[in-house]
Amino acid sequence: QVQLVESGGGLVQAGGSLTLSCTASGKIFSLDTMGWYRQIPRKQRELVATITRNNDTYLAYFVEGRFTVSRDNAKNTVFLKMNSLKPEDTAVYYCNKWPAYAYDYWGQGTQVTVSS
User: Fold this and answer.
1) Which residues face 23 on adjacent strands?
2) Which end of the chain offers a freer environment for a tag, N or C, measured as fewer CB atoms within 10 Å?
3) What is residue 25's predicted lDDT score, i.e. its pLDDT?
4) What does the pLDDT average to over 55-67?
C-alpha cells in the first residue's frame, strides 16, 4: 500500500528558504521518477520538479535557479530545497510519482506560505 508523507512547510518571509521532505512507502519510490507538485486554491495542481532514480532532475521554469530536488533512495525520501522564496510560491506542496494524476493516491501535502 502506497503512503506519502510530506513535511517541512511553514511560514517564511519573501527571500527566505525552506526544505521539504517526503517519505514514501510501498512500490511507489524505488523504481519511480518522483515529482514535487503544488496547488494553489481554485487552481490546478502543477508540477514543480522531478528526479529520476538516477538523480536526473527537472525544474519548472518558475523555480529554476531557486529550487533544487534531491532524493535518498536508502531512506525512501525525496527533498525539495527552496531558496529565494516569493509570495507566489505560496501553495500546498505534494510529492508523488511522475507522472501522477488526480485519481492517484495523494498524501496530505505540506503548506508553504511566503509573506511579502
Assistant:
1) 5, 77
2) N
3) 86
4) 97
